[in-house]
Every structure is written in C-alpha cells, then in structure tokens.
Amino acid sequence: MPARKAINLKMLSESLGLSQTTVSRALNGFPEVAEKTRARVVEAAARLNYRPSPSAASLATGKSRMIGHVVSLSEHIMINPHFADFIAGAGEVYGENGYDILLRLASLEEQERIYRDLVDDQRVDGVVVHGPLTGDSRIAILNALGLPFVVHGRSDEEGADYCWMDVNNRRAFHRATNFLLDLGHQRIALINGLETMNFADRRRQGYEAALKEAGIAPDTRLMHSSDMVEPYGYHAMRTLMELAEPPTAIVVASVLPAMGVTRALADLGLRAGEDVSVIAFDDCLSFLQSGCRSGFGGRVPDIPYFTAVRSSIREAGKRVAQMLLDRIDNPHGPLQSELWEADFVIGQTTAPPRRR
Amino acid sequence: MPARKAINLKMLSESLGLSQTTVSRALNGFPEVAEKTRARVVEAAARLNYRPSPSAASLATGKSRMIGHVVSLSEHIMINPHFADFIAGAGEVYGENGYDILLRLASLEEQERIYRDLVDDQRVDGVVVHGPLTGDSRIAILNALGLPFVVHGRSDEEGADYCWMDVNNRRAFHRATNFLLDLGHQRIALINGLETMNFADRRRQGYEAALKEAGIAPDTRLMHSSDMVEPYGYHAMRTLMELAEPPTAIVVASVLPAMGVTRALADLGLRAGEDVSVIAFDDCLSFLQSGCRSGFGGRVPDIPYFTAVRSSIREAGKRVAQMLLDRIDNPHGPLQSELWEADFVIGQTTAPPRRR
DNA sequence: AACGAAATTCAAAGCGCTTTGGATATGTGC
DNA sequence: GCACATATCCAAAGCGCTTTGAATTTCGTT
C-alpha cells in the first residue's frame, strides 16, 4: 500500500530540491521546464501518491473541474429514468477527462437563481440544460452569465445562439406515422410527452405533417400529452379505446407509456400488433434493454418487442458531455450543434389494421 | 436585480468597517459577536448578495459540503431507475441543508481507490454506499478511512459496525409468499434480483422460510436470480411456463421484471391475476407511480395493478441522507441504524390458483 | 573569451476563507 | 477608583495551489 498521509506540493518540491513553481509547472505540462526534471517530478509524484488539492487549485484558478446538472424536481416530473441513462453516458466521458458531476435538484423556477449562484460560487465549469422548453428562459440567462453550457435538445426554431445536441424528433415521428399509414391505418393516435417540452412539440409536428400529407385531418380526440410515465399510457389508451371510433394504431412518445398501453390493451383482451398497432419512441433505456443484448443467459431476442423509432439517450449523454468539455476548453469557439437521426426498427407491435 | 459582480469577505468587512474575523464569525453564528453587530453584518451580507467562496472555505476548513454518491457502472448494472428515485429523495434533503451531490460512476473494483481519493482530495464530507453485497469490502475501507458514510441496505448479518438503513426484505418476502400460500398456491416461483446483492439474498431467505414452514421444499427450478430489468422478467417467466409443472404464482423482486412477467403471460394468452398470481416488490418508482396518485387528469386508480410489498425508495433516500448529515455533524456519536417494514397492498394480480 | 538570447528555475504574491492569540472596551466587586 | 473578569473585536497566520516577475544557467556566436 502506498504512503497514506496526504502529501502536498510543498513537501513534494522539498523532497525533490525544487521550487513549488517548477514542480507545479512540470505536473501541469508547461513548456518551460526541462524534460529531464519533468520526468523526475512526475515519477516522484506518482511514487509518493501526490494529488493536488482540488479546493486549493480551484481557489487559485477559478476552475472546479465539475459539471453542473440541475434537474427539475416538480410535483409531476421526478428525476426520471431518461435522465438516469443520460447521466450514465455523460458520466463516462466526464470520468475519462477528470471531471465530476455536481447534481442539484430544483424546480424550474429556482433554476435561474441556481445558475447565478453556481457561477458566483465558481462551483462548476459548465452545465448541461435538460428538458428545454420551447423558448426556454434558461438559455438567455446562461449566455448572460457566460457559463459554458450545452442543451440536450433544442429550445428554439431557428438562429440558435447556443450549443445543442438533439435527435430529429420531427422526422422520427413523421416516419413512424408514415409507416402506419403505409400499413393502411387511418385512425392513428398520438400519446405524446408534455408539449411544453420542445421535443414533444416537434414530435407532434412530425405526426401531424404525416397525417396531413396523407390527406387526414388531425383529430384532437386522438392526441394526448402528459408526462411520460406508465400509468399515463394506460389511462390514455383506455380513454382512446372508449371512443366511438377508436384508433387502430398509436404512436407513443416513450416505451414507458407504451408499456401502459400494452397493459391497457391486455385489460381489454386485446394485443398490440394484432388488434392495435403501436410504435414507441425508444430511448434504449438500460433497464428495458429493448435494443441491446439481453442480459438473460445469453438468450438474445433478435426481434425487439416494440416497433420503434430509436435513439440511445445514453449515447446522447456521451456526446453532449464531450461537446461541453470541448466548449469549456475553447469557450469562444464557434457554437457547435448536432442533429441525430433516429433508427427505425420493426418489432412485433405493428401490422395492417384488422379488417372489421 | 441585485448587484452582479461577486463580492468577497474583504470587501464586505471593509464596507462595514469591521474586521474579516468579526464578519466571518457573525455569519457563521459564533457566540463572541454582539447581537447588534451580527444583525448589521447579516443585513449587509444579504443586501450585497455576499456568498462565501466554497473553494476558499473548503481549503480553510477541509469541509466541502458535498456528499459523494459513487455508483457502479458495470456491463450489467447500469445506473438504474431505482438509483434515480433514491437520489431524488436524498437530493431534496441535501438541498435543504446546503449540501450538493457529487456523482461519480465507477465499477465496483475501482470504488476502493475512489473512496481513498475522495478523502485525500477532501472532495466530500461523506458518502452513501449503494447496493451493498453480502460481506462488502467497501465498508471496512470506509471505516479505515474515517469517512462518514451510511449504507443503503446492509452488508452483514450481525454486529454491524456501520450506519445503515434497510427495508425488512426477509419479512416482506416471507409475507408475500405466505399470502400466496394462504390463497392455496403450492408451486410458487421466485424471480429474484442478483443474489450477490445482500437485499436479494435476504428476500430469498424470506421466500424459502415461508415455503418450508408450509412444508414445501424449495425447488431450484422455480428460482431465478439476475439484474432487475424488464426482459429478465420476460425470459424468466417464459422459462418457468415451459416447465412440466409450471408455477401458479410468482414473487418478483421489482415491478420492472414484473412488467416483463406480465408481457410473457400476455404472449401466452394468459393474464396475471387470473391464470397466474404475481406479487412484486414495489419501490414506488416515480415513473410507474404504482402507489401514488396518478397524474392523469385526476383519475386516480384506487386499486393498484400489482399486488405488492411496497416501500418507497425515494423516502429511503431522504432518510439515508438525513442520517448521513447527522453523522457528519456528529462523527463520533453512536452508530444509527433503521429497519423499515414494507407495506402490503393487494392489487389485481393475485387470486386463488385455477382449478384444473 | 565574452556577450546576448534562450532555456530553466525560483521567491513571493495572491486566491478568499477560517482561526489563533491578542488587544481593546465594557462591566463587576470591593 | 482600582484590580479583575467578561464581552467584543482585530491583525495576522495559515490552508495548498497557480502565476507573475525576476534571477540564474546554458548555449550558440562572433
């Protein structure tokens, strides 16, 4: 076991017969230190298990090597599994680069103050914005504060003055809807996320556009919008099936409500993919493993259950993290943005409409 | 809008005509400062929006006002929704007490080194241990390091030398199994979590004890153990139903695999609560809202879907956080521990066995 | 051999807070 | 009115790092 008691710069430099300046520069890769001495310093630092104190470094430089994730914790939306998977991806990248996550829970209203405090306190070197609304006020605030940030998703239509990474939600839902139309469905319902969220808004646009292109007028009775939890899917589906003319196909914003949909159908003695077609947006949530290898004894289901538009939120977390670190390294570079296309995978929950 | 540019102790004390010492003490509630001056100081601090620099304070005191959560990120177990809900509860308590969460992802093998580094770096004032194994090595390490910590769950049988908060998993599964026995079931399967995890081990003990008390020998063909994800429940259930004598009832370690169970049954044209009884352990995961009010238009389902043993993991997060903060305030006080009993709720998935 | 440039190294001044050991003002008992 | 205790307040020394400005070496040139 290496030496236990913590060692500091002073001790290390004394043991080397060098000044603190030189040792500090040697470790931080400054050019003005001879390679020979640098090697000596690095070796000694490793041998003595020297670790610079983060708070001292932070005090001296103003950098904290922390990334802030402030997630809203309102009555409805708890910290949710989508977020958990996102952070799993992001955390991986942070770890590889010596950054840590500072996690703070707060209602949306508090977030403005929190961002201010985070920069005043120099607690974080950057933040990622989760769940952007259409016209989200956080973006202007962060720009005004000059804190590096990346938005997971988008807030505005055009001329964005911020970094973002998003999935092409509009096209994904357009495509899903088209697929159902091609199968012959005419009454297609939408069980969407909360449409104050920008991503849900775009999804709806894609859905409506596809319908209109097929000459079908969107019917508000077929459209629901709420937090993407399982019981929402259940109740929305029950409601839809009570209509005089129930839908023959449904597009659902997440596998979570999609499971509720399945359960509702089962309660009615119906089956997804036989009586009603279902397409879900699949974020590749790890605990559902819908897209990935199943952990169960090597038995890999080749055909996924849900027909889905799919994009891994975990991969998105990785990419957003990388973009943020890039921006922190180069805060005045051009604003990056990235738009990913979702995959389309055919599962067991879609079929032509039942003949009546 | 209050003054923008950050203000520091020196400026604040000068503007008050007091020394930094006095101002610092006034703000930190030391007794040797006159009430009158304290009031002045507090007022000025608020007015000028003074916020002490965390890194400076941390450097001076060695305290960081951060709580470490290091969660394992192995191939199998991703950061999971159980963790997300736990952290939602804990984060609430931290926030109320001016603490922040430091989140770090790491494999179990790395965790020993990480704990060392965290104390060497003085990055956190305490940590919570997630997912304790039976005989978990992390506990001895943390004790040796002298870092305050609380275990969510337990690691050992008796004579624990650490703080913990756990649910009575053994009794919960004993009770669930008994309930099924009382309904007349004889072949009862167990779809358990990973039994290297201590909680899963205890659950199995409860299950087996109940069977034995009823004079039934546990049958390993009826017992599965793996990560608690949806497809696991699905495949385990399919496997069980292929047995010559399939079970008539199942106890499942989480609602996630329980949903997989339901889906498997549906595939077989069977229904939970009619053809096969299912009891799940319900952690009150927020995105399932199985126990809570449904957010869907006020339509509150009074009868939950799954019959379940239930204990809110979010509440557990709150409690563990509070226990940890208490311990940080009083590191040498007696070791606290707490054992919660799970609720038992009857839903729609249990019934007497089908007569054949 | 001497000189200016380039390459290294260093002493010391912060960064913004807490805390020790005094100093000063206030109050007490006789 | 004086010695002493008590209540307030303060100057200065860290905490461990980075960074400025200067000092010292080293080296190629003429």
Description:
Two copies of one chain form a homodimer. Chain A is of the alpha/beta class. The first copy, chain A, has three domains: 9-61, 434 Repressor (Amino-terminal Domain), CATH 1.10.260; 66-167 and 314-340, Response regulator (Rossmann fold), CATH 3.40.50.2300; 169-311, Response regulator (Rossmann fold). Chain A has helices spanning 9-16, 20-27, 35-47, 54-61, 81-96, 108-120, 137-145, 169-183, 198-213, 230-241, 255-267, 313-329, and strands at 66-72, 100-106, 126-129, 149-152, 163-167, 188-192, 223-225, 249-252, 277-282, 307-310, 337-340, 343-345. In chain A, strand 6, helix 9 and strand 7 form a beta-alpha-beta unit. The model of chain A is unreliable at 292-300 (pLDDT under 50). At the A-B interface, helix 4, helix 5, strand 2, helix 10 and helix 11 of A face helix 4, helix 5, strand 2, helix 10 and helix 11 of B. The structure holds a DNA duplex (30 and 30 nucleotides).
Which key terms come to mind for this protein?
homodimer; 356 residues; alpha/beta; 434 Repressor (Amino-terminal Domain); Rossmann fold; 3 domains; six-stranded parallel β-sheet; six-stranded mixed β-sheet; 12 strands; 16% strand; DNA-binding
Compact description:
With 356 residues, chain A is an alpha/beta fold. Chain A contains twelve helices and twelve strands.
